[in-house]
Design brief:
mainly alpha
């Protein structure tokens, strides 16, 4: 028998998770699997940021045939590029122009 860890979940939390699963039109087990995969990706140096599903799908499509491993990696790269003070790409462009460009590219 494989090693197992049991986590007790209150009935209230279980009900909330079932409601979330139904809103996503997936099973309770699929929701738990999704949650586990998210936790596996996290470490103390990371946090979760939510983006619209349509946008996430566009990102996944964009990176499909690239060396980028995940949507999270791609979004992190873009944010570092945009927010970096040392970035030559955006050093002479003000925030308004950056936002306009991101909007045209479908990111905002």
């Amino acid at each position: 028998m494989e090693n197992r860890t049991t986590i007790q979940v209150s009935e209230k939390l279980r009900q909330e998770l079932k409601i979330l699963a139904s809103k996503r039109d997936i099973s309770y087990q699929e929701l738990l699997s999704d949650m586990i995969s998210v936790f596996k990706e996290l470490d103390r140096e990371k946090t979760i940021i939510s983006i619209p599903t349509k946008l996430a799908k566009k990102v996944e499509e964009k990176i499909r045939n690239s060396d980028i491993k995940s949507a999270s990696e791609y979004v992190t790269f873009l944010l570092r590029l945009i927010l970096s003070e040392e970035s030559e790409v955006y050093s002479d462009i003000d925030d308004k122009k950056v936002r306009e460009r991101l909007k045209r590219l479908g990111y905002l």
